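Field reference: sequence -> structure
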Amino acid sequence: MYTYVDLFAGCGGLSLGIERSGGELRTAVEKSDMAARTFYFNFIDDSIDAGGWATHLRSSLLDQVRGRVAVAPLRDVLDLPEAISLISASPVDVVVGGPPCQGFSLAGRRNPEDVRNKLPWEFLEFVRRVKPLLVVIENVVGMNHAMAHGEAPPFAQLRQALIETEPGYNVQAVAVNAVHYGAPQNRPRLMLIGIRSDFANEINITTTNEIWRSTFVVEIRGEIPDLAPRPTVRKNESPTIADAIGDLQNPEPGSDAMRSAIFRKEVGLRSLWGLPAGTGSSGTPPNQERRSHTADTQQRFRVYQWLRANDISPRLISDFTKGGIDGERGALLSLGSVEFPAVAPDGTVLAKSTAELIKLLRSLKTRKHSQKALSWESSAPTVVTLPDDYVHPSEPRTFTVRELARFQGFPDDFEFQGRVTTGAHRRRFEVPQYSQVGNAVSPFLGLAVGTMLARVLTMSAVITQSGRESRLLTV
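Structure field:
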């Protein structure tokens, strides 16, 4: 058992994996009341109703910290000395989190109010004050893109900032993909995993200067760094969309029986992940409500499904709706070898001839040119915060919250709270269910990270939760 704090916790994807590996939550900090309610419901008490949650929100920040879910900006926690004292009353082993830091710069020390720098510096300030043995920072791959004027990427600068954070950390950079850890989803992410320098010396942990990159188990070349989460699946073991959500469909699509059974066993229920057992009813899992679409939208989705089945790019629609003569010529070439009638997976006849299909394509006016239908036989692309980009393989609709949660690896009784979705004007301050799922760390990746943390923390028999401070830096 080890203790951890989750900052910018969201709905708890990373915490879920850490709990399953033996982590014990000290406190989670999340400013969104919707995401924080999901965290509280699943990690603390799923009997809480709207009134109980309103009472928690009205309670003092110190009482929220005592209740293990602080619904506030991290700055508020840092500005309350009693909160920091309460959190660090006994040693904290691990601090994890995903502060937004795509624009992070070491120059932010000179301008701490710059919004691009503010949150990661607050994260590092928390680390400096709590002095955990291990630190995990998760973020998107865009953090490693080069900056203007030859400045190092934010990822490299944040790594250096963590190294320099008192009392000093050795840091391993990793580029990981949830698909290498059992998720039915291609989801690349960057992580910085830091170990307090005195602890690293004590147990002889080393780091490398290079970014270690995950892959499937049999494709690993060279040694895996001490602080890298170890991949868990081979390529042929990686679950598909059918394996992940086939049982939620009627009729159920064909899937690999063994792969599907292993995936569903690994997803399991909350109790498998170290959380309180759910008290809800059995049967259809929560958050499986299908979204309603207009008849025109459903027809467009059927066309996307037909295009995917015939290996034709969905850009064909825009070629006919706004592509001009050259665009239409290219589109007609794409249709040269297709067979008619064109039939959608649900049996709807879309067109009986090329002329009918062209007429249909020209009628499909849409601004959503990034949409595409997914295939039962492949893994899912990265789950995002908006549900509109991906169309179900066989039904004319987008995916449910539960289906996307399956792609991430959340257990079936992990229930998402708050609005299902929200309008663009509210998205700046609301985090509805779809956004909670899309923002989360895959619990499968979280489990691999947690397993690595537990292994490192138990490497020295002489350093225990109660006695290590006699040999290490005094907190």
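Note: The longest strand covers residues 169-177.
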